[in-house]
Design a protein that fits this description.
Number of helices: 3
Shape: elongated
CATH superfamily of the largest domain: Kelch-type beta propeller
Distance between the termini: 48 Å
CATH architecture of the largest domain: 6 Propeller
Largest sheet: 4 strands, antiparallel
Amino acid sequence: MSTYKNLIGKDVNFLTTDPDNVQAEGQIWYNSPAGAFKNVAGASTWSSTGSLNTARRESGAAGTQTASVVFGGGLAPNGNPDTNATEEYNGFNFANSGNMNQAREGMGAAGTQTAALAFGGANYTSGGVLASNEEYGGSSWTAGNAMNNPRSYVAGFGLQTAAIAVLVVVQVQLSQNLMMELTGLIYPLLLMFQEYFLLTQVVEHKRQE
């Protein structure tokens, strides 16, 4: 069985006061007066930055903290209709970029700010659950190869040319009128009984052809 020193490379120190320096982050020590082991988990704080130009939910995103892109999503207040708006973030502010070809929400996403991939999702106003995907090149979107099956609320990771889709739920498509009438607690309960299936396996790979 491994010891703390074998794993971390340091002994567990016996101290009378808790350290307050950066070096203590991630370490464990024994506070003698308190008669207890203590630790400091490495953590940082959140700070405010520029807001999105278009408020949305269930959007796709790719990139890093200082170079990212956000696309699609459902518009406030109830997520309907969906948007095709795309915005790039530079670490301080968001700037509008080329719109997606298909407005959608609940899509999978992968890639970087200049080479992103959006796949699946749904457009409940016109398209229902989608199988199509789109590739972003830093300023505009182009259609890519469709997924084998339409699916929404799908997670994704990887690169634009080598991504994986992980299915969260398979959704039975409902009519537009019925979808708009389902509100409050009735909406999630009815969908649960409309043959939502929870899946845990990876369902599709997307490779460049």
